[in-house]
Structure formats: structure tokens, C-alpha cells
Amino acid sequence: MPSIFISGGASGIGRATALRFLSEGWTVGVYDVNAAALAELKAEHPAIVTGTLDVTDYGQWEAALADFATHTGGTLTVLDNNAGVLFSGDLDEITPEQIKLQIDIDALGVTYGAKAALPYLTGVKDAHLVNISSASAIYGQPGIATYSAAKFYVAGFTEALELEWEKHGIRVVAIWPLWAKTALAETDAKSTKTLGVNITPEEVADQVWNSVHPSIRVPFLPRVHYSVGTLTTLLSNSSKFAPRSVVRLINQITSQ
């Protein structure tokens, strides 16, 4: 039976992803720091394996993956690096602690997760590393600068590992949602007003599912990045083909 380990999966996009894969018959592990949300998820869906995980602690990654592996025969099909945190406000308005927490969870946690999961993914058929990036990594976003920069890191990290892990037979992809209807979007970031919060966690979960079940595979032209929603795709494509001055103007307008 294929298996997926989801960090920060007790609520929001992670929870929706857990339920999506559970409905397809997968063994699902959800590990989080939110004990109450984990207990609620477990009560509603006893088949889901749950446990505690602070993604900024490498030792906890090792322990959580080892625990989940006892339910899967010692292997892992998909690691979903889902855990994330966001604090909005200009750089001079947020605290040093908030800056550090975003970098630790959104960048370091993703890196720790990938490294810790590698032994469990290696040699497994259709093994995948799925990293949750963000449309805020298309162009640097004022008001959420640290979060945006961390997601740029996720995008670059994904691209590097996609090449590096080819020798292990592991496919590495990134999911790019715009603002989704989760607690993360309950923020004063101006782009939530101009662009709206229209994507559901289920839509992101569907794209996670699609990313590990691609309908078309071209060996010499692998797909690495998966946008969620039409607007995200438009913004992403505009950033690739429009002059940077135009992309800057678009992002300036959406951030006012």
C-alpha cells in the first residue's frame, strides 16, 4: 500500500491532503505540533497515523519518520513538506522571533524533512518529495517579505533536489497556491484584498494528488512546478515572459 507522510497536516491544506489520499486507500501519516487538532483528526479518521513533530528539530523528524515507518513496512512513497507559518507586516513591524520562526519552519524545516526522509524514499516505486511553495515566490511580496523569501528558497531547493535526487529515482515537485482559505490567509497582507482568498484547501490537495500522479511524463522535460488556480498560473506565466519591470508593476499594484 502506498504511503504519505504530511508535516503540519492537522489542519488546513495538510488536513485536506490527508483526507484526499486516505480516500484513495493510501496509508496516511499526519504529524504536527497542534495536539488538539491531531486528536480531533484522529477521532474523526482513526485510520490516519498521527504524531507530534516540530519541523525545526531534526531529531524529531527522525523519530516521527521512524514511527510512521512501523506502519508502512519501513518505506515511504511520498513526503509532503506542508508545514508553514506566516506573519504579515513590514519588516520593521514584525519581531525578530517572528522572522526566525518563519525561516526555521518554512525553509529549514523543509530541508530537514527532505534529508530525514531520503532513506525511506530511496528505492521505492514512484517515490516523491512534495514541497509546498507559494505564489508569493513568483516575485518578492512586500508585507510578507520573510515568508515570500522563504518560499523562494523552497522553489530553488525543489529545483536543486529534482536534479540531485534523480539518481535515487525520487521525483521532486513544488506546489504553488495563491491565498487559500486557511488560517494562514487570516492576515493583514494587502494582496489578500486585491487578489482575494478564493482557493480551497481541497483544490490544493487535488493538485498534490495530481503532482504524484502525472497524466503525462516526458523523461527529458519533467514537470517540477504545479500552480494551483487560474490566477496563480497567469501570474506565474507573466513572470516568465513579461519584462521584470512589468512584473514588478503588477506586484506593486496587487500589494497596495
In short:
The chain is an alpha/beta fold. The chain has helices at residues 12-23, 35-44, 58-69, 96-121, 145-164, 191-194, 201-212, 230-241, 244-254, and strands at 3-7, 27-32, 49-52, 78-81, 128-132, 171-177, 225-228.
3D architecture notes:
The chain is of the alpha/beta class. The protein has helices at residues 12-23, 35-44, 58-69, 96-121, 145-164, 191-194, 201-212, 230-241, 244-254, and strands at 3-7, 27-32, 49-52, 78-81, 128-132, 171-177, 225-228. Helix 4 (96-121) runs parallel beside helix 5.
Give the H and E element order.
EHEHEHEHEHEHHEHH
Q: How many helical stretches? A: 9
Question: What percentage of the residues does DSSP assign to strands (E)?
Answer: 5-15%
* Computed CA radius of gyration, to the nearest angstrom: 18 Å
Largest sheet: 7 strands, parallel
Q: Low-confidence parts, pLDDT < 50 over ≥5 residues?
A: none
Spatial order of strands in the largest sheet: 3-2-1-4-5-6-7
What is the percent of helical residues? 40-55%
Mean pLDDT: 89
Helix and strand composition category: alpha/beta
Terminus-to-terminus distance: 48 Å
Number of strands: 7
What gross morphology would you assign? globular
